[in-house]
Amino acid sequence: MSGDSRTPCLVGVAQHTVRRQPGPEPLDLWELVAREAAADAVAGGAGGASALLAALGSIQIVYTESWQYDDPAARLAERLGASPRHRVYSKVGGTAPQMLLGEAAAMIAGGELDAALVAGAEALATRRTLRRAGERVAWSHPADPKPPYGWERPPHPAELAHELFLPVHTYAIMETARRAAAGESDERERAGRGLMLAPMTEVAAANPHAWDRRARTPGELVTPSASNRFVGWPYTRNTVAVMEVDQAAAAVLVSDGFADRLGIPRGRRLYLRGWAYAEDTWEVAARPEVGSSPAMAAAARAAFDRAGAGLDDMSALDLYSCFAVALRAACAATGLDPLDGRGLTVTGGLPYAGGPASDYVLHSTAAMAARLRAEPGHGLVTGVGMHLTKHTYAVWSTEPGGVRGDAAPVHTAEPVPIAASYEGPATVAGYTVAHGRDGAAERGVLIADLPGGGRAHAHVRHPDLIAEAEARELVGTGVRLVPDGPVNVATW
C-alpha cells in the first residue's frame, strides 16, 4: 500500500486491572491506558508515543458508571496534550465500544483524521470499598448538575412497576424461555451452563488482566452454596458478569499511511474487515420470541458477508458473555457448538475476566489484537447491549480487505404490545425468581402471553408458588393475573 492509504488499522491496545483498593479514579485510568496504547502502537517503530497522542483527531470515551465528569473527552485530551476536534462520550451499553471503533474507522477512511483513541474505564470496586468504609467518592471535575443517566431509552413503565430492570432478572427470564423452547429440563440447562462456562475460567486463569483468575469446575459454577447463591434463578453468582471491578482499556486506530510514517510494522496492524449492528426489542416482554435473537443472526450474517469470511475462517472468538443465554443465543445465531475447540473467549469473559459495565468489548478487542498478532488470521468479537437488545459483530484480521460496515441496523424487531395492567387468564412465556443478598427467594417475576395477543408482567408473591416455580417448569403454565395497584399478581 502507498504511504497515503486511508485504510484504517488498529495499531495500539492496552488493558489495565487495578487490584489495590481503593484505586485511582476513571480519568487517571483513561490517561494510563491511553498512554500505554500509544506506546504499544509505536513499539518497534520510528515514531514516538507523545507524537501519536498529539496527532489524535478523535478521542472517544465509553460511558462510565463510576463517576460523571463535566467533559470527559476534553479532560482526557488535556491530560494527553492532544487537541482533537472530534470528542465523544457514549451512551450506556455493551455495544458502545464497537460503535465508537466503527465510527473512528469510518472517519479515518473518509480522510477526516489520521489517528483516533477509544478508551474506557470503571472504578466500581473502588467505589464499593469506599462505601463500605463509610467514605464518599470525591473525584475530580464532577459534572454540575449531574446529567441524567446515559440511557438511550429508559425502561418501560410496566418494567419499572414490576422491578424488572436489572439484567440478572431480565436475562434469567430469557433463559427460562429459551430452555423451555429447547425442551431442556432445569437440570440439563444447569449442567450445560457449567460445561460451557468452565473452559472460560481456564482462559481467565491464564489472563494477567482478568479480575478472577481461578479455574473452576462446572459443578463449582452452577451448584448453589453460601458463596454461590442464586441471584436471578436459575443463575448463580458464579455464572453472571461481575461489574464491580477496577479495569480500563484503550485502542488507537490510524490510517495505514500514518502508520507507515510512524514506522509501525505491518505485523502489528489489525484491520476491521467487516462489522454490523442489529437490534431486538428494547423490552423483554416485547420480544416476538422471548428466548431467541433474530437480530444476532442478522448481525452475524452481515458481518461475515462484509468481511468475506465465515465462522470456519475465524481462528479465535470472543462472544459477549454477560449471561449464559447471551452466549447460547450467539452460538445459535452462528451455528457454533458451545464447546467448540477454539473456545468462546480470548479474555475469560465477563463473569471471570471482568465485566466493567459498558466497557468490556474494548478489553476483548485488545485481547483479540494480541492473539492475532501472535497467530495471524481472523477473529470474531461480539457485543451485547441492554437486555439482549443491541448487537455488534466485528471481524478483525491481520489481512486488510472486506467492506468494513457501519452502524446502520441490519435488523430491527417488531415489538409485541405490552399491557401495563391486565386481569384474566394468561400463559407463562418466561420467568425468574429474584433472590436477596441473603440467598432467600423474594418474589417470582414472569412475562405472560395474553389470550388476545400481547404480553403482561406479573409478580408471584405466595411462598408456596415461588417454591413451585423453582421446582418445575412454569413456562406454558396457565395462570391468572389480577392487578394490585401498578403490579399484576399471578396465581395458579
Describe what this molecule looks like in 3D.
It is a single chain. This protein is an alpha+beta fold and 492 residues long. It has 14 helices and 17 strands. Helix 1 crosses helix 3 and helix 11 crosses helix 12. The protein is globular and about 70 Å long.
In short:
The protein has 492 residues and is α+β, with helices and mostly antiparallel strands. The protein has 14 helices and 17 strands.
Strand and helix layout:
Blueprint: E1 8-17, H1 26-42, H2 49-54, E2 58-61, H3 72-80, E3 86-89, H4 96-109, E4 115-123, H5 124-132, H6 157-161, H7 167-182, H8 186-205, H9 218-222, E5 230-233, E6 235-236, E7 246-255, H10 256-262, E8 271-279, H11 294-307, E9 314-318, H12 324-334, H13 360-374, E10 378-385, E11 390-397, E12 418-419, E13 424-435, E14 441-449, E15 455-460, H14 463-471, E16 478-484, E17 487-491
Parallel strand pairs: 2-3, 2-4, 9-10, 12-15
Antiparallel strand pairs: 1-7, 4-7, 5-6, 5-13, 8-11, 10-11, 13-14, 13-16, 14-15, 16-17
Helix pairs in contact: 1-3, 11-12
Tag the structure with descriptive keywords.
8-stranded mixed β-sheet; 5-stranded mixed β-sheet; 492 residues; 23% strand; alpha+beta; 14 helices; 17 strands
